[in-house]
Write a structure and sequence with these properties.
Length: about 240
């Protein structure tokens, strides 16, 4: 299975990370909520070591709730306590040395051990109370960060189309196919390299009831463009964290 994933790289805009992958996860029931936002509303939150990446002059932010399962290190079985947990990512789009990737504002999870382990690598993980329920073809997700009453999300969503793979030059592909992520920590850049097969997604209807997860005010994005994707499952490989001075 992993050899098949590793040998398919035509969809990447950058080469695979050097060395052997370290960890694998299965991501399930992913809702991508993409919002366009004025570039000047984001620039102050981006470290000067990174360049804000825009699509045809527009910056974007993506909110991504999903379930993590079958997490394990290379050549080891699944980790029992971390077999299943929920996660919520808030990210934007950046470049470093010409390579396209992601910059995370926050990552929430509902397993404390997952949060503590990730924070040891300096990634901005937070412990949250979360729930994901499915009724028929409709999902209901809710998240409320522990100790942070204003960090919360609640949404219903329903995929309604067959699966499709975005064209490589499209906005959909630009938003989805990202294989590096960075976070600034003190005087260093933390780099995470990942790989997976191309995203196959569905069209999805979504109703957002509560939205308080971005570092900027919701008013900054409510007048912009909105784009949703849903993906039922994706196997993902992670490379070791890299600290760049």
């Amino acid at each position: 299975m992993y050899d098949n994933i590793l040998t398919y790289t035509n969809h990447r805009s950058s080469p695979l990370p050097n060395g052997k992958w370290l960890m694998s996860q299965r991501w399930e029931s992913l809702l991508f909520m993409h919002f366009s936002i004025p570039e000047n509303s984001l620039q102050e939150f981006i470290p000067e070591e990174l360049e804000l990446d825009c699509y045809q002059g527009e910056a974007w932010v993506t909110i991504l709730p999903f379930e993590v399962s079958d997490m394990h290190f290379c050549f080891s079985p699944s980790l029992p306590y971390l077999q299943n947990y929920l996660e919520l990512n808030v990210r934007t789009y950046v470049k470093r040395n010409g390579i396209s990737g992601l910059y995370f504002f926050s990552l929430d999870a509902n397993k404390l051990l997952a949060v503590l382990g990730a924070r040891m690598t300096t990634l901005p993980y937070y412990y949250a109370q979360m729930g994901l329920h499915k009724s028929g073809n409709t999902f209901h997700f809710q998240s409320k960060r522990r100790g942070k009453r204003n960090a919360s999300l609640e949404a219903d969503y329903r995929p309604y189309s067959s699966l499709w793979i975005p064209d490589q030059d499209s906005l959909d592909s630009w938003l989805l196919e990202r294989y590096y992520a960075w976070k600034f920590n003190r005087n260093s850049i933390v780099e995470v390299g990942i790989h997976h097969l191309p995203w196959n997604v569905q069209n999805v209807e979504a109703n957002i009831q509560t939205f308080q997860v971005t570092p900027f005010d919701f008013e900054s994005i409510r007048e912009g463009k909105l784009l949703f994707h849903f993906s039922p499952v994706k196997r993902v490989l992670f490379w070791p964290i890299k600290i760049i001075k």
